[in-house]
Structures are given as C-alpha cells and as structure tokens.
C-alpha cells in the first residue's frame, strides 16, 4: 500500500472535511424540522374548532392554567353531578390536609418529561427528544388547590352542565384502570398512571386542547404549546 496522498488519504483532510459537512447539513436539517414544527403548531392552534361555542352565562366555572411548560384544567371537586373525591383522594398526598381544598388541577403527559421538567429550568434536550419520539408511559398529574384567581396564566371559563360532564368524561378516560399513584412535586399533588401515547404531536398541551374540544369548547385544532391553548380564553 502506497503512502496516503492529499487525494486519497485522511492525512490530506478530505474525510474530516466531509464529516464536518455532514454534521453541518444535519444540524441545518434539525433546525429546519424544529422551525417547521413550531410553525405548524401555531397554525394548528389558530384554526378554531367548535367555532360557534360561547361561554355560558351561568354554569360550572373551570380554569385553564399554565406554568410555561405544561397546561392543566382546574375543576371543582363536586359539581354538576361529578364528584372527584373518590378519584383524587387526600390519602394519596404527602400531606392529606391539602385534600381539603375544593378544586383539582389536572394535566396529562409523558412520565419522564413530567417528573423531570416541572419548570423550564429543568428542561433537558435528551428528555425532550425521548418524549418527542413517542412513549406510552404516561401520567395524569393532579394538584389539590383552592379556588384560583384569574390571571395571565390562569384563564376562567364557564361551561354548561353537559359540557362539563363531557370534559369530566374525557379526563377520567385518560386515567388507567386501577391506576397506581406516585408522589408529586410537593405535599399537595400526586401522579396517576395514564392512558394514551405521548409524542411531539400529542403533547401535554394538545391533551388540554383535546379535552376542551371534546367538551364542545372553542379552541384550536392542534394545541401543542401552552400559548396555543391560552390565547383562546
């Protein structure tokens, strides 16, 4: 075998240059995919479903809230014939005294993503990537809370009784039969085994939008981000 030359050998730098080019193209392709995903999410979130829906003049008050990563739906523990006390029990909490609060905040998501990203500060690229490719390991997150006050991150909505019952049915269907419970972030919340497949398409926020659409509320066709949920209310 003859000596490596500039034309044929690694010593000449051809392979490092090629590898660098492949990496650059790969990075550019990834940025393009992310940009298209974000664009699609905002377009999908802007397409109204249940467009003729109007808020009830008198009915069941719920809230949609966001912590900047996850959205949740806040419901009264007892209303319109729906009683959540047997579903989310005080004894499931680290401190059962929080079970005395009269509302629940409910969300759904991928198990690892939920447990590792309570706020943006805990977001890790590896966690996002793993969840984006899909997982059937999901959880329903339940906080026991007092009546919230409406704010920029907490939107108040008034539903008709039949709309609220449909919403409750959707939430219950997201919980696995005989669901085990796990400690939450604090003393006032818990996680329960969920149903469904989490992915970049079916995110925790698209679950919130889907639950509201099922109830008959006007919301976007696809709501993968917190903003795509909240801007409707």
Oligomer classification: single chain
- In the sheet with the most strands, the strands line up as 8-2-3-6-7-10-9
N-to-C CA distance: 73 Å
Compute the average pLDDT.
Answer: 88
Show unreliable segments: 1-10
Structural class: alpha+beta
Give the biggest sheet: 7 strands, antiparallel
Strand content: 15-25%
- The value of Rg in angstroms is 23 Å
Percent of residues in helices comes to: 25-40%
- SS summary, helix count: 6
Number of strands: 11
Question: What is the overall silhouette?
Answer: globular
Order of helices and strands: HEEEEEEHHEEHEEHEH
Structural features:
single chain, 233 residues, alpha+beta, two-stranded antiparallel ribbon, 11 strands
Describe this structure in words.
- With 233 residues, the protein is α+β, with helices and mostly antiparallel strands.
- Helix content is 33%, strand content 22%.
- It is built from six helices and eleven strands.
- The strands form three sheets. The chain has a seven-stranded antiparallel sheet with strand order 8-2-3-6-7-10-9. Strands 1-11 form a two-stranded antiparallel sheet. It has a two-stranded antiparallel sheet with strand order 4-5.
- Helix 4 runs antiparallel to helix 5.
- The N and C termini lie far apart (73 Å).
């Amino acid at each position: 075998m003859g000596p490596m030359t500039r034309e044929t050998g690694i010593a000449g730098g051809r392979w490092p240059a090629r590898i660098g080019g492949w990496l650059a193209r790969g990075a550019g392709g990834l940025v393009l995919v992310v940009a298209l995903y974000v664009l699609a999410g905002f377009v999908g979130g802007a397409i109204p479903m249940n467009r003729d829906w109007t808020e009830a003049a008198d009915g069941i008050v719920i809230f949609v809230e966001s912590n900047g990563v996850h959205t949740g739906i806040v419901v009264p523990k007892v209303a319109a014939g729906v009683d959540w006390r047997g579903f989310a029990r005080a004894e499931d909490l680290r401190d059962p005294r929080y079970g005395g609060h009269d509302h629940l905040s409910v969300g759904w998501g991928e198990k690892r993503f939920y447990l590792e990203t309570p706020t943006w500060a805990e977001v890790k690229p590896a966690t996002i990537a793993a969840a984006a490719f899909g997982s059937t390991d999901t959880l329903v997150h339940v906080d026991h809370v007092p009546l919230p006050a409406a704010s920029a991150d907490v939107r108040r909505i008034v539903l008709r009784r039949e709309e609220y019952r449909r919403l409750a049915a959707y939430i219950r269907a997201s919980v696995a039969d005989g669901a085990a419970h796990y400690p939450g972030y604090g003393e006032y919340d818990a996680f329960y085994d969920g149903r469904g497949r989490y992915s970049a398409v079916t995110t925790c926020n698209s679950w919130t939008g889907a639950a509201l659409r099922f109830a008959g509320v006007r919301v976007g066709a696809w709501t993968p981000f917190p903003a795509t949920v909240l801007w409707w209310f």
